[in-house]
Amino acid sequence: MENNIEEIRHSLSHIMAQAILNLYPKTKLGMGPAIENGFYYDFLLTKTLAPEDLQKIEAKMKEIILQNQKFTKKNISKLVAKKLFSAKGGSASGGKDQPFKLELIKDLPGKTVSIYTTEPDKKLQATSYKLQPFVDLCKGPHIKNTSEIKLDTFKLTKIAGAYWKGSEKNKMLTRIYGLAFSTKDELQKYITMQEEAEKRDHRILGQKLDLFCFSDLVGGGLPLYTPKGVAIKEELQKEVERICRGYGFQKVSCPSLTKIDLFEISGHAKKFNDELFRVSSPNGHSFALKPVQCPHHTQIYASKPRSYKDLPIKYMESDKQYRAEKTGEVGGLTRVYAITVEDGHTFCTREQVKDEIKAMVNIIKEFYSSIGLWGNHWISLSTRGKDFSKYIGEKKDWDLCEKILKEVSDEMNLGAIKCPGEAALYGPKLDFMFKDAIGKEVQIPTVQIDFATPKKFNLVYTDKDGKEKNPVMVHRAILGSYERFLALIIEHFAGAFPVWLSPVQVSIIPISEKHLEYANSIKQKLLENNIRLEIRDEAETLGKKIRTVEMQKVPYLLILGDKEIQAEAVSVRQRSKGDLGQMPLDKFIQQIIEEIKNKK
User: Fold this and answer.
1) Is 3's pLDDT higher than 70?
2) What is the pTM of this model?
3) What span, in angstroms and rounded, lies between the C-alpha atoms of 285 and 290?
4) Dihedral (CA of 258, 260, 264, 269) sign
5) Per-residue confidence (pLDDT) for residue 424, from 0 to 100
6) What does DSSP say about strands 468-469 and 28-29: parallel, antiparallel, or unpaired?
7) What is the CATH number of the domain that holds 587?
8) Is pLDDT of 596 > 80?
9) Which of 126-140, 192-206, 261-275, 330-344 is the least confident region?
10) Which of 90, 359, 519, 557 has its CA 20 to 30 A from that of 196?
11) Transmembrane ranges (predicted)?
12) Residue 268 resides in a domain
């Protein structure tokens, strides 16, 4: 398709609004932008829509498209625009009694606004009704004519709720989403991918596999981890800490509560003002729950004098952080109030910075190679935007940091792409973007240089000439939030985790009660080798037990009966290969230990 796909998507949102007004004339229009892969529009409707209504709306959109409607832009004064969208406005569809449009007109800068009008080709007759011209407040751009849209390249997909302007203080509107692509094949490919994504949804699989749950009494956004979920989290933590220890990191631990003074000095109190949980007690104590761990680590560094001989000093910690996310944005493990964050900070000299960053890149490479994601990624060199007031520190330090990160990218052949405006509060960074098994992109690991924070907290070390200097602080997150990371790997592996990560690595199934004693002896030997297991001794058929284990995606299943007892062996079924036959227990243990060791 010759047109810019973004213009097509934006135009489809207008066409959907026109269709809605024809079907439900008293509807109030919100906003309707183009988004990644499609478009949406927010409406205040006089009825509640059901999923089957999408087909009716989509059919009406196709009728409008077949009218060869022309998009015409016009700049008008705000005064004229207010009259157009008022209760006594013009006769054009969309341009009468639209309070949300009036609010937008008031908020927009300047004395003029732009509107787009669409109306059918007068040479053509509507197939089922006569259309009025449709007018909407919009800066564009749009396509020239609806004839440029192919009817089989878009599809309405879902209905959701959305607060006007994203604020819970405003009215809840009905948001209708649609997909739009350049070709029918692209649309179908994306729909197929989305269907696969739904099968892999971490919220569904997390419940089916008994990894985590939520409680209304505890509160939304506060996940509770089951023994199986904790098993995965602990394996991830052990692995990332094992790798980091090899590069000199040491574990520290900090409280969740802190005086707000700490975050006022760091700048986080201002940045996270709307996201801070503030805690007070009846006897006058006043604290904040930490939204980040960086300032706490500065205070461990500041607890005693430091020499250049001590540097680099490297701290790592996996602990809870808390952010008061907007209620409407909380969901699953990807947006929560209580975040378990894997975090690390290095305090070093300027001369050591580049080597420390390279070490952190190597840590990221080793960790993500262990789960099969390394290689399917790209890296952002996230730099500051034009408005320096949004950041802390000195421009000369920022320039040096960006130069160092560019050199690291070049020397390590990372191919980092510069992304202005994506820097952290205190410095530029390398952000690693990974694609999962179905092509969904997620950013988790990051390495960030920070000259500003050590200066804010007056952190110093004594150099070889006896002079005090500020260290450089290098921030790094390898797996970031355990919640987001767990959501990523549940969906990436579709719940079929590699053996080393599986919460249950072996299921033992005695064929009958008389084989239970032998099953317990096998259990003991597996436990002695730190293998996570379960015994399925329910009073059910062998077939049902096997199906239950397969649904739980356990890597190995050991079936025990008379033959296995006589041979002092186990019959092995592997998740990916099926029946492997009978083998000595020692051989099986050696095989699974090797898989765990090699992160398979």
Assistant:
1) no
2) 0.78
3) 16
4) positive
5) 83
6) unpaired
7) 3.40.50.800
8) yes
9) 126-140
10) 557
11) none
12) no
CATH number at residue 471: 3.30.930.10
- Model confidence band, residue 149 (pLDDT cutoffs 50, 70, 90): very high
Length of the chain: 600
Under a CB-based contact definition with an 8 Å cutoff, are residues 29 and 102 in contact? Answer: no
Of 281, 192, 232, nearest to 487 by C-alpha is 232
pLDDT in tens, 274-306: 888 888 888 878 888 988 889 999 999 999 999
Least confident interval from 392-396, 447-451, 561-565: 392-396
Annotated binding site: 294, 345, 475
* Residues 6 or more apart whose Cβ sits within 8 Å of residue 513: 537
Is the residue at 106 inside a domain? yes
Q: Which helix (H) or strand (E) holds 462?
A: strand 461-462
Q: How many domains does one find in the chain?
A: 3
316 near 282, Cβ under 8 Å?
no
CA distance 97 to 199: 43
Which segments are annotated as binding site for Zn(2+)?
A: 294, 345, 475
Q: Beta strand pairing status for 569-574 and 429-435? A: unpaired
Are residues 70 and 37 located together in one domain of the fold?
Answer: yes
Q: Radius of gyration (Cα) for the chain, nearest Å?
A: 30
Report the interhelical angle of 482-493 vs 184-200 (nearest 10°): 110
271 belongs to a structural domain: no
Alpha-carbon distances, residue 345 vs 202, 243, 356 (angstroms): 30, 15, 10
DSSP 108: S
Report residue 345 CA to chain centroid gap. Answer: 23
Is 539 contained in some domain?
yes
pLDDT in tens, 438-497: 777 888 899 999 888 999 999 999 999 999 999 999 999 999 899 999 999 999 999 999
| Same domain? 365 vs 489 | yes
